[in-house]
Design brief:
The strands form 4 sheets. A 9-stranded mixed beta sheet has the order 3-4-5-2-6-7-1-9-8, with helices on both faces. The chain starts with 12 loop residues before the first helix and ends with a strand. Helices cover 29% and strands 20% of the residues. The protein is built from 14 helices and 21 strands. The protein folds into 2 domains: 8-231, Rossmann fold, CATH 3.40.50.300; 248-464, Nucleotidyltransferase, domain 5. Helix 2 packs across helix 3, helix 7 runs antiparallel to helix 8 and helix 10 (335-349) packs across helix 11 (372-378). The protein binds adenosine-5'-triphosphate (ATP) and magnesium ion. Residues 10-12, 15, 33-39, 162, 203, 205-206 line the site of adenosine-5'-triphosphate.
């Protein structure tokens, strides 16, 4: 095969259709595994290089080093099949130079510092393969600053991802659920995108039956991930930590119009005296902060006329400093600014601003202003340590309460529909690959953390409200 006789039938029908999407659109190649996405990327690069010769400069990044080596082997096979020994490869720079002078560079980009090497460099096509391995889109977005080309050479950004990685949430928010083949504006970056989904069924170059069997076998302990990869269903997620216990129908409650009063509790003459309220807070500045108004039931009806068994926890409201475009980033607010939002939320509910927060805000970093907790106190918000010592114990308590939500005789954990960040992140939190008992800490876990602290409030004096 040579460049000139690279025939359309060398590509699957899906790949041919994807090649026909006008170049002015950036691409999100999603769906399931094995659809031929990476092969399509090589074909897109080849076409660009053939058209624009030495002015074509392509870059593809992956996060992990082993991942990069696999990609290198795939690209080497592909371009060698076209150019034979006229293809040059610089192993040190991971760079292919095609006989027409065009270049295709492969690189690893793991953290902020890795980005420096692209500063000042220009590429006409940039692709991020396995974009779901990035917990936040920040680094991926930054790559765009190197997307520049001489007049007449089109530039294009291409994201490729499978469901279930730590970046699952931001990819779903931006791209993965968009209708295939239809252009749309990615609101976070303001660029025009087309999402193209494929599954292994679109790839006639593999033994599909065997591929499906192998894929399911590779996910024997995590059939949900297997299904997501096979069917390209981004709504089921790899080993989502709470998947087996979190059922929206049982856990979600409609927003409460007000907090329940203590009055109907008179029937529990010697029982608990009333609902108790407090705050639970996970601090961040560059990262998001999340604060919940937490209600603990004495075994009583809520204002929604549902009965909450004694000890049930209801997350009634949420204040979050999550950046609207990036669930992993905060708004960078100062402590007094955060405190004033929290005080406002408490005022709306008529409770006083007391509660628990992560232990880290009690550490003294030698600042004249004291600890972050001190700063909060000065601004009228009183936090105590959540004693988050046992992370896994906390997650287990949360799983148990979620599993018991909806049972008439056991305390459960209930979360208002208005706790948006909780609902956007907690159901999708992946497991830690090294420790399946834990949540992956690189995922957006701030709402989950604050929720976990809410469950450790037991020793904390609660603020009881009576109407
Ligand atoms: N047009 C093609 N011609 C020959 N082989 C192809 C073609 N398209 C895909 N393949 C082969 O099918 C297999 C899967 O393709 P590819 O790796 O591109 O899929 P993918 O969607 O990137 O998979 P993953 O989701 O696992 O990253 C590879 O072995 C690839 O070489
Ligand atoms: Mg691939």
């Amino acid at each position: 095969m040579t460049a000139s006789n690279q025939r359309p039938d060398d590509l699957s029908q899906w790949q041919q259709q994807a090649m026909a999407v006008p170049e002015e659109y950036d691409l999100f190649l999603g769906g399931g595994r094995g659809g031929g996405k990476t092969h399509l990327l090589a074909a897109l690069f080849l076409r660009h290089c053939e058209r624009h010769q030495e002015r074509a400069r392509c870059l593809v990044v992956r996060k992990s080093h082993p991942g990069l080596q696999d990609l290198e082997a795939e690209f080497r096979d592909f371009f060698t099949a076209v150019y034979g020994d006229r293809l040059r490869f610089d192993g040190q720079k991971h760079k292919f130079t095609l006989p027409n002078g065009a270049t295709v560079q492969l690189d690893q980009m793991e953290r902020e510092a890795d980005f420096q090497k692209y500063q000042g460099k220009s590429f006409s096509h940039i692709a991020v393969d396995e974009a779901g391995q990035y917990a936040s889109p920040a680094l991926v977005d930054r790559l765009r600053s190197s997307l520049r080309a001489p007049a007449g050479v089109p530039v294009r950004f291409i994201l490729i991802a499978n469901p279930g990685g730590v970046g699952h949430t931001w990819l779903v928010r931006r791209y993965a659920l968009a209708a295939s083949w239809q252009p749309y504006t990615d609101e976070a970056t303001d660029f025009e995108f087309v999402t193209i989904n494929s599954t292994y069924l679109d790839n006639e170059f593999i033994d599909r039956e065997r591929y499906a069997r192998n894929l399911m076998a590779s996910c024997a302990t995590d059939p949900e991930l297997g299904r997501a990869w096979l069917e390209g269903d981004w709504s089921v997620i790899r080993g989502a930590y709470f998947a087996s216990v979190l059922d929206q129908q049982r856990v979600m409650v409609e927003p409460w119009p007000r907090l329940p009063s203590a009055a109907p509790l008179d029937m529990w003459a010697d029982g608990p005296s009333g609902w108790r309220y407090s705050l639970a807070h996970d601090y961040g500045s560059a990262a998001p902060s999340v604060t919940f108004v937490v209600a603990e039931s004495p075994g009583a009806y809520g204002p929604d006329r549902y009965f909450y068994p004694s000890g049930s926890i209801v997350l009634v409201d949420e204040d979050s400093t999550t950046h609207p475009d990036d669930i992993s980033a905060g708004l960078g607010l100062t402590v007094p600014d955060q405190a004033s939002r929290i005080v406002d939320m408490c005022r709306r509910w008529g409770i006083s601003p007391h509660g628990v927060a992560d232990d880290a805000i009690f550490n003294n970093h030698g600042s004249a202003a004291g600890t972050i907790a001190d700063e909060f106190r000065k601004a009228g918000v009183h936090f105590r340590r959540a004693h988050k010592g046992s992370r896994i114990g906390g997650w287990q308590a949360m799983r148990r309460l979620l599993a018991d939500a909806g049972k008439p005789d056991k305390p459960g954990l209930y979360v208002s529909r208005c706790c948006q960040v909780w609902w956007e992140t907690v159901p999708n939190l992946p497991r830690d690959q090294r420790n399946p008992e834990d949540v992956d800490t690189t995922a957006p876990d701030h709402a989950a953390d604050a929720c976990r602290y809410a469950l450790t409030r037991i020793e904390i004096p609660h603020v009881t409200i009576r109407f």
